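User: Could you walk me through two proteins back to back? I'd like the raw sequence and the structure tokens for each, with a short line separating them so I can tell where one ends and the next begins.

Assistant: Of course. Protein one, sequence then structure:
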Amino acid sequence: MIASLTGTVQYIGSDRVVIDVAGVGYEVFLSRDGLSRLPEKREEIFLHIHTNVREDAIVLFGFQEQSEKEMFLTLKAVSGIGPKLSLAILSGMQLGDLCQAIVTEDVRGLTTIPGVGKKTAERICVELKDKVGGFQAVASSAAAIPEKLMSAGSPAGDALSALINLGYPEHMARQALGRVKKQMGEEAFAEMKLEEFIREGLRALT
């Protein structure tokens, strides 16, 4: 089984990427968040991989963080949920929001994800409510932004206001900037300029 891949980005599609590893192109399906965080074409990338073997095909699913892969496998273990729906669920909500929805049994929120009906949402909550605490802690830690970096007048704080003024809800704008921090690293994040925050924040929101 393929557990990880390191190679260069050859092609980026609407739901997949092709990674060139020593001249061999591997087609890998990613969540919407995973696609938004990909580097430019011809740049190197590392992905955690889940290899799904079917009678008629071998399908690869990729994740930039081990916690995302583990959550994918946890979702896939729920009765009636296959790998494609698991990936759709990860595309429909950020990891921290997904865990919060499961813990609080927010069935209505989960049903906003395409492909997730009421019965499926209820089953997810029942089967996973006591299993997602660790994922929630990892997601919250990674996305948290020190308040001193978000103060009024700071580049990050002004970027947050700009994203809100563009029509994005505050919680979505904060999550987007959290993903930027996670991708860039806290030191580089603290040195970014306003226009960089806005550009990268918008990329994380698409």
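----
Protein two, same layout:
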Amino acid sequence: MNILLCCSAGMSTSLLVSKMKRCAAEQKLDYHIWAVPIDAVSREINNADVLLLGPQVRYMFNEFKNLGEEKGVPVIVIDTVQYGKMNGREVLLTAEQLYQDK
């Protein structure tokens, strides 16, 4: 699965991406997980199975949801509490559920 995360500059999610990658590796899951800034989403979404938005860019949800619908990529905003805790395991589970519900 290819999991794309988006935040303001692509930097605040780097720790979360690292934690998600570690969790996926522990489970021997072959996932590609990466983060980009807002302006790179339109280029990167074609490589993604799901798009997770950081809470700080929730204002872009409708725009990215429409883009995701065009590309067949489901989009959600990461839970603020899980994002704040940098809970890679829970965010990974959220991505997996979003993919399964697709």
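DSSP finds five helices and four strands in the chain.

Let me know if you want the two compared in more detail.
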